[in-house]
């Protein structure tokens, strides 16, 4: 939290049919529906999260990600980061308090990859779902499906990876935890973190801007990932790959698609990062093993299916 950015706050995802999407995110993945607003957007959260929501679904005519948001320490930090983004040369947009229910004002900028990112300092806190903040039980009764415990990160595809990395490093205080480099030493993928996690957001080089690869949610155990795989088959949900292990981050994972074609991941485990850790480097020629450690090859869907 070097520059006051604490963690991922939420992601807003476009879906083609809201009721189908809710069967997926609420009933299969186990997110909790919190609210629906007058624009038809649906707000959800994972059960361990204290903020009111971490996922917003918006019905649209094409899938993808509208924006990803990060929560900062306070409004003073928000104002400072806004000024630094402007000084850096970013165009910023003011989004007023309440545009998303329960969320304070947001500052939006467009990364060199073409993705929209928001910063905010305030969001209504409703606490962990189903358990008290005093003498809490181990977990709440009534969880559905995969019982996802938190929104963890997004992987995004676009151009100008190096410029995006420098912006996140120099202005927002992110650190480079892992990278993939080509034979000339150029970065083709960066995994960035503001805390101890393996990554809070990651970017992979792609000529087309503003492409959404996946939103990822954390599960507690490998057994939970295997159970998620069972549920994917039991519901005839479209699967990408897994269960398997990553080389990058070493997380244990499975990828699948929502009914609109947006990719999701649930995973457990993974590496940790401290500020004194040097970045871990993977060679682009070994990308298959870096992504899918057991198979050591990439499937075509993982590289080409983007929304």
TrEMBL record:
SUPFAM superfamilies per record: Glyoxalase/Bleomycin resistance protein/Dihydroxybiphenyl dioxygenase (SSF54593)
A Pfam match: Diox-like_N
Cofactor needs: Fe(2+)
Enzyme class: oxidoreductase
Keywords annotated in UniProt: Aromatic hydrocarbons catabolism, Dioxygenase, Iron, Metal-binding, Oxidoreductase, Repeat
Enzyme Commission number(s): 1.13.11.2
PANTHER family given in the database record: GLYOXALASE FAMILY PROTEIN
Similarity section: Belongs to the extradiol ring-cleavage dioxygenase family.
Name the record gives this protein: Metapyrocatechase
Species this chain originates from: Amphritea opalescens
